[in-house]
Amino acid sequence: MLSIWTDIQRRRLLRSGNIPKHVAVIMDGNGTWAARRRLPRTAGHARGAEALRRATTEAAALGVEYLTVYAFSTENWKRPKAEIDYLLNLFLKYLREKVPDLVQNKITIRFLGGLKKFSPQLQKLMKAAEQKTTYAAKPLLTVNVMLNYGGRAEIVRAVNTALQAKEKKLTENSFTRYLYTTGLPDPDLLIRTSGQLRLSNFLLWQSAYTEFWFTRKRWPDFDGRLFRQAVRSFQRRQRRRGALRA
Ligand code: IPE
Ligand code: IPE
Ligand code: MG
Q1: Of these four, 52, 54, 105, 243, which has the most CB atoms within 10 Å of its CB?
Q2: What is the band of 245 on the pLDDT scale with cuts at 50, 70, 90?
Q3: Ligand 2 center from residue 73 Cα (angstroms)
Q4: Is the CB of 118 under 6 A from ligand 1?
Q5: d(Cα 226, Cα 118) in Å, to the nearest integer?
Q6: How confident is the model over 17-34, as pLDDT tens digits?
């Protein structure tokens, strides 16, 4: 049957339900996407950047407040230098070209992770993008790009920072102040593409009660329709957090 439903109607229906405030995404499967098309892995990364734009647009349209994406892990340095260089150049290109779009759409961008490991040029562009996308009013959406990020590294860094600050006794609440994600609510929904069913060191602390949604679709094929599918699945779930059903 031909559907007469438009994307706008579908979004409206979803928006009448519970929209996840914070969505985290493990953007996986770029390399496999390319290999299946007999293309170099890097072609998959280039297409992956377009998928990120689609995800951002859909998140904003649905009323998601925070979109946190895993762009480069602390373990991704184990990859061939050529692939790493390609990715770093892609980040540079994104920062040079896409910031005006973000400003026009009132989207804030933040970069979180061990950023000091990147070139001064890249660090400068990241800082400039953050500044340019800081507004007086509340943004439509905040996109957190996790770079040289690892959940374990983040926790150890938090402990060391707390020790330096001479903290005597931490609580779960005060500890979160030392994480990269300080000030952000925990993710409500985590999406991972490409059929891999693991966290790969992403948001270990923050995802304690996050709802997971997996798809076999690879990241370069991700679109608004898949995003809405994930949100629909989220809306059908009952979050109990250890208690009994309401
Ligand atoms: C995700 O795609 C992008 C990054 C990790 C930077 P992959 O590069 O991991 O692609 P697959 O998983 O090998 O297909
Ligand atoms: C996780 O994907 C990291 C990013 C998406 C940036 P990986 O492809 O690096 O994870 P593994 O190696 O399959 O666990
Ligand atoms: Mg992968």
Answers
A1: 52
A2: confident
A3: 7
A4: no
A5: 32
A6: 999 999 999 999 999 999
* Substitution site in 26, 30, 85, 219 for ligand 1 pocket (most atoms within 8 Å of beta carbon): 30
Superfamily of domain 18-151+186-235: Decaprenyl diphosphate synthase-like (3.40.1180.10)
| pLDDT band with cut points at 50, 70 and 90 for residue 2 | low
223 included as an active-site residue: no
| Residue nearest ligand 2's atom 9 by CA | 76
Rounded to whole angstroms, the Cα distance separating 80 from 32 reads 16
Is 0.85 topped by the overall pTM? yes
Checking if the pLDDT of 72 tops 60, the result is: yes
pLDDT of residue 53: 97
Q: Domain ranges in the chain?
A: 18-151+186-235
Query: Would residue 186 show up in a list of annotated catalytic residues for this protein?
Result: no
- Nearest Cα neighbor of 8 from 79, 114, 134, 16 is 16
